[in-house]
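Structure in, sequence out. Go:
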């Protein structure tokens, strides 16, 4: 649950939620309007499929927009889709960066706790602590 909250926080901070909801509205709206202007895309399901293939840049070619309005709708949805895909990539990278920071913070807190009790540690514990600090130093 903590990871999901972290992911949701990143989505909200970046404004990705607004972009995602906006894309969903544009996608559904365009799917409803497209069959009205495109004779080769007669049904809502066909329009959903066509626009999905367009914004993912798969472009199977089983449906094609031939009217000016249909092509404009396709361009808008495709450009918005590219933005959403790029934003999704950024959110995922931000999420993993936050996970790495949280892990590092946890490791450092653990090390600080051990250092606070340094006089109480045995010789073996001190040796192990020294080894861990040296490994950490070599990784940085």
């Amino acid at each position: 649950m903590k990871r999901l909250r972290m992911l949701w926080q990143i989505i909200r901070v970046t404004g990705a939620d607004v972009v995602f909801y906006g894309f969903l509205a544009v996608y559904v709206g365009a799917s409803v309007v497209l069959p009205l202007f495109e004779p080769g895309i007669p049904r809502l399901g066909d329009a959903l499929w066509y626009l999905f293939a367009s914004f993912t840049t798969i472009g199977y070619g089983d449906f094609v927009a031939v009217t000016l309005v249909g092509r404009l709708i396709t361009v808008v949805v495709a450009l918005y889709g590219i933005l959403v895909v790029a934003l999704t990539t950024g959110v995922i990278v931000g999420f993993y960066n936050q996970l790495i920071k949280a892990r590092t913070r946890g490791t450092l807190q653990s090390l600080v706790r051990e250092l606070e009790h340094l006089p109480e540690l045995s010789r073996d514990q001190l040796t192990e602590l020294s080894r861990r600090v040296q490994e950490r130093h070599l990784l940085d």
